[in-house]
């Protein structure tokens, strides 16, 4: 793909990302702001090792990029600097490139999640289950801990401590943890018949089920929660908020 020399280039780094929310969001944003010299593209890489060549190829034009699955952690060794919050989280979803070509990593996922969740919370929401242990789950955990939640991760291979298995999710655990956040890709279009294997029969009206997935708008995970009277929310607002935060970061380049 040829990019005009004067174009300011932005993009999304990931693998199998033709579905990209970000590309459509920023294309619309650039249109609205009449930024005709700005372009946002998908950088679909088979390996993070391809990043160095990508940066070199677009040197002087690439201002910054977002990062999605599976590179939010793998990108860190390629950075020259990392923001304090991103370092604590251990995952990066936004990179800004300075005029000198230095890469600095940030995490705006935690901000998007926190701000989109806050209006739903009540005093009783003190404990959370996070389904999945990838880069996005780290940002979610960081946000929740800052909001004084007790957090337990759920994965197929529990490691003890604050990481348990799906088999350990019994009635007591579900009823104690009134916020359940899906950070796995289960249920993403086109595999809409999938959902995390939790005992939905113990979900009740006091629960909040939050899914980072936005396509479909109502995953099977959310449908099952809604059937039990739970408050549900998908990841669209989180994505919009983190994208706006990323835009603010890039404007400081």
Compile the SSE list and pairings:
Layout: E1 8-14, H1 21-32, E2 38-44, H2 51-57, E3 62-67, E4 81-82, H3 84-89, E5 94-97, E6 103-106, H4 109-117, E7 127-131, H5 135-146, E8 150-155, E9 163-165, H6 171-176, E10 179-182, E11 208-211, H7 220-227, E12 231-233, H8 236-250
Parallel strand pairs: 1-2, 1-3, 4-6, 7-8, 7-10, 8-9, 10-11, 11-12
Antiparallel strand pairs: 3-5, 5-6
Number of domains: 2
Morphology call: elongated
Spell out the helices and strands N to C. EHEHEEHEEHEHEEHEEHEH
Q: How many DSSP-defined strands?
A: 12
CATH topology of the largest domain: Rossmann fold
**Strand line-up in the sheet with most strands:** 2-1-3-5-6-4
Question: Roughly what fraction of the amino acids lie in strands?
Answer: 15-25%
Rg from alpha-carbon coordinates: 19 Å
CATH superfamily of the largest domain: NAD(P)-binding Rossmann-like Domain
Mean pLDDT equals: 94
Number of helices: 8
CATH class placement of the largest domain: Alpha Beta
The CATH architecture classification of the largest domain is 3-Layer(aba) Sandwich
The unreliable regions are none
**Cα distance, first to last residue?**
24 Å
Question: Can you summarize the main beta sheet?
Answer: 6 strands, mixed
Which secondary-structure class do the elements indicate?
Answer: alpha/beta
Q: Helix coverage percent of residues?
A: 25-40%
């Amino acid at each position: 793909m040829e990019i005009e020399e004067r174009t300011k280039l932005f993009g999304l780094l990931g693998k199998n990302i033709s579905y990209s929310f970000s590309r459509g969001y920023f294309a619309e944003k650039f249109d609205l702001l009449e930024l005709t010299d700005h372009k946002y593209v998908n950088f679909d890489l088979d390996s993070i090792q391809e990043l160095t060549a990508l940066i070199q190829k677009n040197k002087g034009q690439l201002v910054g990029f977002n990062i999605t699955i599976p590179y939010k952690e793998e990108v860190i060794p390629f950075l020259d600097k990392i923001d304090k919050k991103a370092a604590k989280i251990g995952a990066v979803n936004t990179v800004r490139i300075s005029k000198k070509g230095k890469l600095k990593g940030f995490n705006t996922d935690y901000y998007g999640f926190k701000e989109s969740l806050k209006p739903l919370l009540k005093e009783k929401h003190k404990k959370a289950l996070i389904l999945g242990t990838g880069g996005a789950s780290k940002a979610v955990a960081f946000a929740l801990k800052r909001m004084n939640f007790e957090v337990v991760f759920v994965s197929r291979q529990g490691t003890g401590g604050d990481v348990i298995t799906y088999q350990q999710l019994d009635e007591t655990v579900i009823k104690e943890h009134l916020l359940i956040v899906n950070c796995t890709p289960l249920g993403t279009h086109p595999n809409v018949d999938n959902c995390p294997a939790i005992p939905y029969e113990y979900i009740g009206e006091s629960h909040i089920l939050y899914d980072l997935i936005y396509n479909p708008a109502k995953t099977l995970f959310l449908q099952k929660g809604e059937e039990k009277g739970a408050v549900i929310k998908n990841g669209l607002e989180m994505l919009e908020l983190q994208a706006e935060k990323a835009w603010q970061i890039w404007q400081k380049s």
